[in-house]
Amino acid sequence: MAKPAKSVSGPAASGGKYKAGTSQKRMQSRSTKAGLQFPVGRVHRYLKRETLSTTRVGAKAAVYTAAVLEYLVAEVLELAGNAARDLKSKRISPRHLQLAIRGDDELDILVKATIAGGGVIPHIHKQLLEKGKKTAQP
User: Fold this and answer.
1) CA triplet 49, 54, 59: central angle to 5 degrees?
2) Which of 27, 80, 111, 113 has the highest Cβ tally under 10 A?
């Protein structure tokens, strides 16, 4: 007579790392955990690369920086989209970005760069608009 097969218990029972019947957790990126669109891992890598070699960069620093960048981009794109809609265009051009940034006081202070293809902000000096108020009388 043949002996009955032994039942094996423990990790070897399922033949793998996880127990049978349980589903393993899916990988979740740090951007998803933080509820952001910007890549937290990439921002963390850039922060580590740009700081001194003796400086440590915490995990929350990358999340905070990615959140700030995402907010600024959303703000600029919203204003530029409004400018494009006002000019009856469906695409955002550098001109729309220029009008959006220079039209907002806080963004104008923050962004000091020249935008290529952005043109200039329309402005006519007050004294040039005044006609005939100060005429020289003999």
Assistant:
1) 60
2) 80
Tell me, what DSSP letter sits at residue 121? -
What is d(CA 108, CA 114) in angstroms, rounded to the nearest whole number?
Answer: 11
Retrieve residue 10's tokens.
Answer: 């423990």
Residue 31 — φ and ψ, nearest 5°? -65, -40
Residue with tokens 């019947």: 21
The string of pLDDT tens digits covering residues 19-73 is: 666 667 888 999 999 999 999 999 999 999 998 878 899 999 999 999 999 999 9
> Mean pLDDT over residues 69-89, rounded?
94
What are 35's two structure tokens? 């509820």
CA distance to 8, 34, 53, 58, 81, per residue, from 86 (Å):
73, 34, 48, 43, 9
